[in-house]
Write a structure and sequence with these properties.
Helix content is 27%, strand content 32%. It is an alpha/beta fold and 275 residues long. It contains nine helices and twelve strands. The longest helix is centred in the N-terminal third of the chain and has 15 residues, at 58-72. It folds into two domains: 3-52, Spermidine synthase, tetramerisation domain (Spermidine Synthase, Chain: A, domain 2, Roll), CATH 2.30.140.10; 58-274, 3-Layer(aba) Sandwich (Rossmann fold), CATH 3.40.50.150. The strands form two sheets. Strands 8-7-6-9-10-12-11 form a seven-stranded mixed β-sheet, sandwiched between helices. Strands 1-2-3-4-5 form a five-stranded antiparallel β-sheet. It has helices spanning 58-72, 88-93, 109-118, 120-123, 138-143, 169-178, 196-207, 257-262, 268-271, and strands spanning 3-8, 14-27, 32-38, 43-47, 50-54, 78-83, 101-106, 131-135, 149-155, 179-188, 212-219, 227-234. The chain is globular, with a radius of gyration of 17 Å. The protein binds S-adenosylmethionine (SAM). S-adenosylmethionine is lined by residues 47, 52-53, 61, 82-86, 105-108, 111, 137-139, 155-157, 162-163, 166, 188.
């Protein structure tokens, strides 16, 4: 029994999972939101029929968004997460003792509400005293911030609907202004198999603003093609020049200090997107 759901990547290819039951299916003010129980991946959050996260493989994405910039920066104290309403990136950010305050700005309060209810292992740290949760547009928050953050992570949906502005050069310029003089930012950048043009464009735009621009990869089975890209922009610190002693012991399932460096090793067809 159960029904099969397919996230179509193109008219000819998609990623499919068996759904045991649907907890929530509603149109919020910003997007279609589904919270379902899958047969293979635990509970899964979908926005506009795209997989956002699942209980079984969420750790890869959340660890790789958080720990690469947070170990690259020598002393991250003030952190901003744009999007990320499921709370997974925040959970990872809080593993860094240097972090005094983490602000999360997601445009859709319903994502936060349902994630707390149906994804407690992911959203469980959103109530932590070091965390401030704001419901609002990340683009506006960035536009209003100056010299405020050591690290900014953009954990957004794909560039459709409310996230379109989060993939523009104007947004990256705003991020640069919102960061301190030695700040670092990371943004999820979709996948090189089907979104090569997007990745190429983001690389070009970020390069014009940040002196250090790097792409890194992770394997995420429930995202289309399984190969996921992240763009890092840094004003001062290079992610490949992190000294050994900087890697404090934290509890992870994907990220290690070896993965930190290895994730920047790109297959040729991905390297070509960064030129
Ligand atoms: N990890 C996922 C992926 O790569 O598919 C994305 C996670 S999901 C939690 C992304 C979040 O970005 C959603 O909760 C959505 O509401 C939020 N979002 C989209 N546009 C936004 C904006 N302009 N400002 C703040 N949050 C936004």
């Amino acid at each position: 029994m159960g029904i099969w759901f397919t996230e179509k990547q193109t008219e000819n290819f998609g990623i499919t999972a068996k759904i045991n039951r649907t907890y929530v299916s509603e149109q919020t003010d910003f997007q279609k939101l589904d919270m379902v129980e899958t047969a293979e991946w635990g509970n899964m959050l979908l926005l506009d029929d795209m997989v956002m996260t699942t209980e079984k493989d969420e750790f890869v994405y959340h660890e790789m968004v958080a720990h690469i910039p947070l170990f690259t920066h020598p002393n991250p104290k003030h952190v901003l997460v744009v999007g990320g309403g499921d709370g997974g990136v925040i959970r990872e950010v809080l593993k860094h003792k240097s972090v005094e305050k983490a602000v999360l700005v997601d445009i859709d309060g319903k994502v936060i509400e349902y994630s707390k209810q149906y994804l407690p292992s992911i959203a469980g740290k959103l109530e932590d005293p070091r965390v401030e949760v704001k419901v609002g547009d990340g683009f506006m928050h960035i536009a209003e911030s100056e010299n405020a953050y050591d690290v900014i992570m953009v954990d957004s949906t794909e560039p459709v609907g409310p996230a379109v502005n989060l993939f523009t050069k104007g947004f990256y310029a705003g991020i640069s202004k919102a960061l301190k003089e030695d700040g670092i930012f990371v943004a999820q950048s979709d996948n090189p198999w089907f979104k090569a043009d997007l990745i190429r464009q983001v690389q070009q735009d970020v390069k014009e603003i940040f002196p250090i621009t790097k792409l890194y990869l992770a394997n995420i089975p429930t995202y289309p093609s399984g190969l996921w890209a992240f763009t890092l922009g840094s004003k001062k610190y290079h992610p490949l020049e992190v000294s050994e002693e900087r890697f404090a012991e934290i509890d992870t399932k994907y990220y290690t200090k070896e993965i930190h460096f290895a994730s920047f090793v790109l297959p040729k067809f991905v390297q070509d997107l960064t030129k």
